Amino acid sequence: MGVDIGDLFRWEKISFKDLHDRVIVIDAHNVLYQFISSIRQRDGTPLKNSKGEMTSHLSGIFHRTANLVESKIRPVYVFDGIPPPLKAKTLEERRKRKELAEKEWQEALEAGDLEKARVKAQQTSRVTDEIINQSKELLKALGIPYIQAPSEGEAQASYMVRKGDAYAVGSQDYDCLLIGTPILIRNLTSSGRRKLPGKEAYTKVHLRQIRLKSSLKLLGITHKQLVDMAILIGTDFNDGIRGIGPKKSLNLIIKNGNVENAIAKIGGDNVPSIEEIKEIRKIFLKPSVTDDYSIEWPGLDKESVLKILCDTHQFKKERVAPALEKYSNVENMMKQKTLF
Amino acid sequence: MFNAKVKSEVLKGIIDVTSPLVNEVKLNISPKGISLRAVDPAHVAMVDLAVKDKAFEEYKATDMELGIDMDKFGGIMRLSSSGDMVSLEYDEETNRLIVKIGNLVRKMGLIDTAGMPDPKMPNLSLPAKIVLKASEISQGVRASEAVSDHLALTVSKDNFELSAEGDTDTVNLKLPKDLLVELNATSKSRSLFSIDYFSNMIKPVKGEDPITIQIGNDNPIKVEFDIAEKKGHVTYLLAPRIESE
């Protein structure tokens, strides 16, 4: 969603086994969006219960988290708090785009264009308060810990890794790198395959890891300079400068040292002000986070899970049961105490 | 500066002790020897290791840190056979460790140690202490692996007991005081531990070599032993598991 700087970094292919016994903080907003946009039927209709309410997020949380705990990974979800004020414009734009996509989805459906319908339907995906609350309720029943961030979820997640309470952050969002996540893992909650756009074909999705420090070293820039780079390209908090992508931006920052000097060099009118630059840097370099959390494993509450999934949302019991079995691992994990 | 020559076994010993817990370690180098302390990512176990300069055939060093990828280093050391002399040299310019085994020169890139944590040793009061030969306990641990994923260790006034319980099978190993090198306990202490972790902790000690174990009630265990022909020492801490209801 944020800055597309992934191509600049060196990705390591890893496997679930490499994450065995490790605590991974999952950016809840990011994966929920992933679930509600991707767990859909061919024409783009999301999974629904008998009342017509969306259940894609519950299916995603339940089945994908089951895969993690089966691999002895210890997931902790972090939910977004109040967004930084500078994000208001981005959020408003997203809302408008989604309304437009909603209209286009219906039009595509009427025209019988399934491919377009699916794409447009995915674009309508919105992580609503209801989706968040239902997800939290399900996590609680599953015995999977979640933490409420004061502001951006990825900032809190990244902080927990820097503190040594977790090994890595699981997210698809490169903004995690801007916010200083030491190790970012992508595709942690993916289905293992991704549909190729415009084709009835799928490509295999691998687990990938990126280490911030060594990546920055390879690029020859500091963390602060990475943020400056992003400001030039455009972030969730500012429009970028027209015509500047990741590669150009990298060269500009290396040549000029920081974003102020780079802007002075290239000129133009649609550039962020000094105040804006300061504010954006603060969001990424000194984000609002909290120490007020604990990571505990209260154990699986089987009855509540069945009630939520099967009674309230009409999931098929025979499909729920085998995945639910995988959560028995969580009870085992929780019995293991930690040193600190 | 770091420039040393050492028998392959000493380095392999350090790798055996460390790599089951952590992939990346910060090796603290000083004129007196090398040391490291690391916690596994799940915060379940800690390893603290010190090897004196005397364990090396040749040793010259100033205070510094080396960030080592243990998997990679382990792979390099597997190229050596026991008895081989290995020379280590830090190349500051390229931030690499130059490893020489016979005529083989292997330059290994090092990891940035800046963000790596310095874990503190937690304060523990563990009332029961035993010292026993590695061979006495390793059999019991091996037997337990087939039965459960956790085992119970109990120290009472007169004996040490290891037991594991599965759904249908059980293991019990009871060692009276006279089979132990030392037993020091005034009351009964019992804690449960993951076999995976515990078995990795005692695996590096072989045969007659002594292992010191300290436990309490539902408290971490402290496991200690010497390496590098007694010129090095290892301390492990392992958090307990909670008893099932």
Describe the fold and architecture.
- The complex is a heterodimer of chains A (340) and B (245).
- Chain A has 15 helices and nine strands.
- Chain A has helices at residues 28-38, 56-70, 88-111, 114-123, 129-142, 153-162, 175-178, 212-219, 223-233, 246-256, 259-266, 274-285, 302-312, 317-326, 328-335; strands spanning 12-13, 23-27, 74-79, 146-148, 168-170, 183-186, 193-195, 202-204, 208-211.
- A seven-stranded mixed beta sheet of chain A has the order 1-9-6-5-2-3-4, with helices on both faces.
- Chain B has 245 residues and is an alpha+beta fold.
- Chain B folds into two domains: 2-109, DNA Polymerase III, Chain A, domain 2; 128-238, Proliferating Cell Nuclear Antigen (Box).
- In chain B, α3 (134-145) packs antiparallel against α4.
- Chain B is elongated, with a radius of gyration of 19 Å.
- The A-B interface holds A 21-23, 74, 162, 164-167, 182, 213-214, 217, 332, 334-340 and B 39-46, 111-112, 114-115, 117, 119, 122, 149-150, 194, 220, 237, 239-242, 244.
Brief write-up:
The complex is a heterodimer of chains A (340) and B (245). By secondary structure, chain A is α/β, with parallel strands linked by helices.
- Pattern of helices and strands of chain A: EEHHEHHHEHEHEEEEHHHHHHHH
Low-confidence stretches of chain A: none
**Spatial strand arrangement across the major sheet of chain A:** 1-9-6-5-2-3-4
Poorly predicted runs of chain B = none
CATH class of the largest domain in chain B: Alpha Beta
- The dominant shape of chain B is elongated
In total, the number of strands of chain A is 9
**Name of the level-1 CATH class of the largest domain in chain A:** Alpha Beta
Question: What coarse outline of chain A follows from CA principal-axis ratios?
Answer: globular
Number of strands of chain B: 18
